[in-house]
Amino acid sequence: MRFIIVTGMSGAGKSHTLKMLEDIGFFCVDNLPPALISKFAEITFSSNSGINKVALGIDIRGGNLFSELFHEIQDFEKKGFKIEILYLDARDEILVKRYKETRRKHPLVDEGRIQDALVAEREILEEVKIRADYIIDTSNLLIRELKAELNKIFLEGKKYDNLIITVLSFGFKYGIPSDSDLVFDVRFIPNPFYISELKEKTGNDKPIQDYVMKWEVSNKFIDKLDDMLNFLIPNYIGEGKNHLVISIGCTGGKHRSVTLANELFHRFLKRDYSVNIYHRDIEKDSKKGK
Questions:
Q1: d(Cα 185, Cα 178) in Å, to the nearest integer?
Q2: Of the ranges 1-10, 97-106, 139-148, 195-204, which is most confident?
Q3: Alpha carbons 202 and 200: distance in angstroms, whole number
Q4: Which helix (H) or strand (E) element contains residue 115?
Q5: How far apart are CA 215 and CA 52, in angstroms?
Q6: Of 19, 20, 103, 123, which has the fewest CB atoms closer than 10 Å, so is most exposed?
Q7: pTM of the full predicted structure?
Q8: Angstrom distances, CA of residue 216 to CA of 190, 223, 228
Q9: What's the angle, vertex CA 34, arms to CA 33 and CA 35, rounded to 5?
């Protein structure tokens, strides 16, 4: 029996998550009143329930739910049952944008500002986030990427360290990505833009990859970067970081940065990290090159 409590910041994707869990065989219930949680769990854990996977959506609409919730979890775990907590989070600016786009009202907003409601909500949810088994930051995740993360945890049973890595290529001429945690400049590598037959290709094309990676400096750079990140990532996980954005930039974000971002992405995949890749500027200036 697998019993998941899905909670977290309002607007972080709880409804989408419950739908995705339902698609992979979970019996899902959203916003169950606190007084019914205990009875619901008893029914689902019973041998004749016919249910072996449950996801229960809980949020701050439950009022004083969380103090009661932890008490209930402790009682069930004493009986030998396991209850897991999945916490969904997102940066405040992303949550504000989502509320403005959907024109929904935040549960804690009466006549105040959304920003004030988010501060209050984070305080209410602080303890549940600390106790969570899984934390997913949805700030930069597409729906399909969120689904992939859920599948890894609840369908494929892969190890999950609560850290999602985004490898991002970009062009310095278009500005450094504002959400970067680590930024690396690869403009020191020879530029294929000046080779006429390579100019219009991108780092997703093999001729560009072959050109960029034929230089010793490129291979030394990616090896040293890989080594440093292998040291940093476990420490970030231990510190509780949920999302790491590694940005690699060249002049226009089309050739060198794309090639090296791809190389780093594939190395991460071999280590079973939860990793996504974006090439922010690859389509820009397509005729002008880098």
A1: 15
A2: 195-204
A3: 7
A4: helix 114-131
A5: 54
A6: 103
A7: 0.73
A8: 11, 11, 18
A9: 95
